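Supplementary Text 2. Reproducibility record for the structural model of the 135-residue chain.

All settings were left at their defaults, and a single model was retained for analysis rather than an ensemble. We include the record here because the model underlies the residue-level annotations in Supplementary Table 4.
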Amino acid sequence: MIRNYELIYIIPGKIEEKNIKEITDKIDKIIQEIKIKIVNKEDWGKRKLAYPIKQNQYGYYFLKYLETEPEKIKELNQKLKTIAEIIRYQIVKTKGIKPIEKEEENKKKEKVEKVKKEKVSLEELDKKIEEILKD
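Retained model, structure tokens:
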């Protein structure tokens, strides 16, 4: 029976940002090797930890929405324990997952709105420049 899960994990804030992508790709590869479907993923960025974990004050937070069978989650749990770059992780069963398509659609709408606002601003700027040049 296919179920929905959320995987949240923290990578130490001491790691350079350029290396973060390599680590997240490594985790995604493990998930895909187990044949777990990644429905959506979110990068929450670098945040201050509520309390120090393994002498880290900050961490990079990542959330992945997964669809799979419970047996595969056990295997994922075992593999995540072996990844030294993860200072904390948690897998929880959820009722539903927001699909990637909706998130991408919302991002596109936000970009369109931003461009519309910038376009209006540029038109106003052009008018003001013309007024100044006429004087």
